[in-house]
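User: Second chain of the day. Same drill as before.
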Amino acid sequence: MGYLTSLVVAALVGQTHAYDPYDPIAGYSPSSDVTDQMHLDKDLKQLEDNLKVNLEGSFDIYQYGGHSKSVASLKLSDPTFDSSTIVAGKKFTGTSVDGNVAIAMKLDDSTNTLGYLKLQYEVSGQNPCNVGGLVTPDGNGCFGASGTVTDGTNVISYDSIDNMNALTLKSLGDSSIVKMGSNHEMFIKYYGKANYADHWVTQAFKGEATDFKNGNADFSEYSIIGQVEAIKKGIAYISALQYMFHKLEEAVSTCDEDVDLECWDEGVAYYVGSLQGPELAPGGGKFPYVLADKRCSNFKTCGQSPPFATGTVSWVNHNVMPKFHMGKNALVKGDCKLATTVLGQISKLVYIPLIQGTLRYAYKVQFLQSGDANVLEKEQAEGTVFAAAVLPVIYKSDKKAAATIYDNMQIGAVETNFAAVKEAFEKVYGKLHINCANVGCLIESGPNTCYSGADACPAECPDKKNTDSKKNSTVPEMGQNAVSCGELALMPAKYRHVFCANNEVEKACPGTCLGTCLCFDDPNDCEDLWNDKKFAKTCKKNKNGEVEKCPSTCAGFCDSIPFTKKYKGPKER
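Assistant: Same format as last time:
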């Protein structure tokens, strides 16, 4: 009977259509099946679609999910059958609601095993079982209300079924899941709660105040307009982004032992999601990847390298996605130091769109209001949640700067002073190894020029000693060639990444390896600098210690000829 059943199972499985769970994720190639993690953005999409008409129903989506890790809890006809005797991962098949084959695997679950069997549905190659808390569930791919399932050896009868989801948007911010890493610790230190992400979203749903150590938000001051923004952006840019860091840092923590590459792949899945697609293309999803592409069009920071443009893939994503590859390769090779370095680089880059988002809505709230109270509340709420997603990072570098940003962006702020918010952010750029050119200037959509007062500050590279020929970095793997940070920045990204895979190079040129030290100067304005006689005069610093004209050129990032041969720069004090 077991042999015959196996043949039936094989035949039924053969009816399902082909599907490759290892398809690229925005150009990144996973080595594990992270389909469930990627599909969580579909919960967020349905939640967003439902938010404006049914706040309570949307909370069910948040809490119970629908698209990720769908699980069938079968109440068995034999109440004495102990499902713990079946090995976890064993595949079962049964008849689905629509009369086709449903495939699921035995869960590693030690709870409630007597008289019950828990099976997780496969998401590849069959109709889905998307139920959970969805407003419009799709249960066609679920096992029938009663029937039998088989693993090819055992045929097990069940009398009833309860379909649920083991991975939900709420679970991303759940404090019961032990998270690790510097980013999580940074957020706990600021907010004072391990479940800061879930607390933010839940209180926004309730329309009540948060109970944080810092950064509190009183959602009772919002109508549903403000609540919607706090909820959907809180999930995408606080919950999902921080859970991304949790998975990446978990992967790095296993580097010295049995490295868990699946954790790293899962981190990428939470950054990109399923709706974005397989290519490195302009954002079309719901997870943090899309924000980088939206904001680059507002700040003219789209493109792989300067001069930047609008409407294409962001500079941030052009740099983050290759670093996902680099980090994974480092883990495969057991280069834990490089994996840690790459993780640190990613953690700086992905906060840039949140800084841009905060600046954009600070400006809109102060200067671009038409008198419509609903528009004002929406834009205030957007600015508030963008700030909430990045404030712990600023707080770690400069507590006063964080306080300034919060005071201007919090719910119920007396006023929003864009200039004060901009200045506060700029104080920490150096510590984050990013510069003003990476953030860009807020542009008007029509003329494509900077709004008054919203222009970018001078693009100063944090690798300040790169014009000192004695500080050139040496890369042994490249034949003992001495390479300055400026020369490194001029290389195509794929070659620069090879150099920066050397930890000594990354240590010498952190901003260059991060990708934030590039030639940002306009060639039309700086072309005449190649006359040596003009270097000393043009590159002279003002009383504030800034090079006013052609700062990238004067820092050695715009010339293929080593700049140290021409200009040593002013002596450092």
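The two ends are 86 Å apart (CA to CA).

User: Great, on to the next one.
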